[in-house]
């Protein structure tokens, strides 16, 4: 969990308070003077209104060059970032034809499959020639995915976000209860809201609080009628994308079994990236996949493709095929995307050419991630997450530090993703680093040097005492 230092909390609150106060004063006088003249339709209420609009105008637009940077290359260990400029204080950004080669610490390219691969790429090109770009040929992929994750059957979708937001309303409805981790992804939140089921949340990664919520809800039953719930499902993630933390899956499954609740596991960031053979958080933590009722994952991270999947019993998958609108009406994945998934899984399994490239990639991403996380902590940064996780957020907090850290890293040819509201709580802005198996040790050391220098410049090393102790112990050794 985030540990907000006392002084940092005060300065962060003061910064946002100052921004809010001056912004509201400026908006007040603009309204009084009607300057600049309103461009909206006279007599109509503004479509964009509220604190989100205020935040967008007063903060986001001023630092939007730090977000959504266009690239002109594949998202490998290095990327070509397109240079942009603004002539109106960042309200609009103009692209140039110039690019900057940077070490890429922002892409979900965990195993390096998002770039050209000696085995995958030729097969992808051949599938495009053979099947054209739009025919649906994903029967083989669903069987391979089911075998890979350890479930009897699987169903695939063309988009990862849709996999959650469309499947949950099919599985749950009125009279059902969804218990969700407080830090679950927005796709889970929207899917739960669309289902019509009652929603309750439990404290992040806390099996004890989950048990409290389950006991209370089972005792009370449905709202108004107090009848027993038709079914209860607990939704968690394998790796939490904004925290880098592993799910306490064994303990959560034990609680679900005790109270006869189903388990829904989102492995968007964990499948393919962790575990001895890349089979995700269940393999890493020693959980039998038979104990997880619904397993969800995406192909956009470790596999270098697009889309998502649901793996479960044959009965559940057959039900989803007949009832899920995202499967019945949506366009299927294209053959090149399907072939990329099939080829990358075969590389991981060692079924491509009998080589051990997949095992090497898994070893490398684990070593790269643990090395980078350890070094960041030694430097005094507040880094979230667990060992073996390729996602490692560095806490920034203060709104002024978001653009300063992002721009200075880019100036020194290191591309880093900064994340702020609404993707995170307002006061908990961060830089999120994603490590890849394609990063060399030289890439990582160079990145650490840049991040350390920029961290000193911006002032985001929140644990200098711990850093000094670590250095002293290192010298003694």
Automatic annotation (TrEMBL):
Top-level EC class: transferase
Metabolic or biological pathway: Sphingolipid metabolism; Lipid metabolism; sphingolipid metabolism
Record membrane topology: Single-pass membrane protein
Listed SUPFAM superfamilies: PLP-dependent transferases (SSF53383)
Protein family membership: Belongs to the class-II pyridoxal-phosphate-dependent aminotransferase family.
Superkingdom assignment: Eukaryota
Cellular localisation: Endoplasmic reticulum membrane
GO CC list: endoplasmic reticulum membrane; serine palmitoyltransferase complex
Sequence ranges assigned to domain Aminotransferase class I/classII large in this UniProt record: 102-450
GO MF annotation terms: pyridoxal phosphate binding; serine C-palmitoyltransferase activity
Gene Ontology biological process terms, A to Z: ceramide biosynthetic process; sphingosine biosynthetic process
This protein's name: serine C-palmitoyltransferase
Entry keyword annotation includes Repeat: no
Catalytic activity: L-serine + hexadecanoyl-CoA + H(+) = 3-oxosphinganine + CO2 + CoA
Keywords for this protein: Lipid metabolism, Pyridoxal phosphate, Sphingolipid metabolism, Transferase
UniProt cross-references to PROSITE patterns, sorted A to Z: AA_TRANSFER_CLASS_2 (PS00599)
Cofactor: pyridoxal 5'-phosphate
Major location category of this protein: endoplasmic reticulum
EC number: 2.3.1.50
